Amino acid sequence: MRKLTLLAAALLILCACEKMPLNNNTQSGDVLATVAGEPITKTDFETEASSLDDSFQKYLDTDIGRENFLNYLINEKLIIKAAKDSGLEKDPKYIKEIKDIEDQQKRSLAKAKEYSLSRLMAQKLYDDGTIAVSEEEIKAYHDKYPYQIYLMEIVLQDAKEAADVTRAIRNAKTKQTFQDAVKRFSKDPVSKKNKGELPPFIPGEYLPQIEVAAANTPAYQVQGFIKTPRGFHIIMKTGEEKLSYNKAKDRIKEILERQKMDAYLNSLKGKYGVEVINNESK
Q: Where does the pLDDT of residue 282 fall: very low under 50, low under 70, confident under 90, or very high at 90 and above?
């Protein structure tokens, strides 16, 4: 629903200064007023009133407020009637504006339909067990990965530069030394903002290539460089922390659900066929 515009608010205020008393004969019926023979009904009034901001809702609780709002609706219809009579409906600017609105509404409706279908399909996959995760699966995953990893990284976009930086900081043995290198070399704005530190992750929550390297790396030993879709990563593991089942189970559930969804989507690629013609994201 539309909110009251500044123009509408101005008209409403103007109505307060130039009141048009209601016709007593129409107050008791459904029709509150007519403009060029076109009625304004109680339903019209209440529908338009429901779109008002909260500050105007209280105003409508008063007799003068309701009277002035009806006068605003009358003025609005008068302006629209005058605009139509002046031929503005045939104005190219108006025609283009309306077409743009209609096109936008069509796109919005199409996206809403797609969103509804995808949401219902996801629920169906959960209900039929395709992406559902059992407690046994969660426990088995926790038995395998009962910990989370703390990691720092420098992200670069050029392989040669990544090799040079790796050599330059190979002997870094502390968080502070690595943070200094992040500030000097990292090309990733998120990495720089967080001083290279990642949120602690359970295997399965971050990039697989990084997770494998981190899991097999001693603490405070620089490892580089590892290529991922984000770039070239130079990493330093700063520790691991064991997690209880209760602390880890919700996160593990999300990991397993995502893995099952990925497997399902990969099966759809084989079923329907996917061909990337021009990857404009590169």
A: low
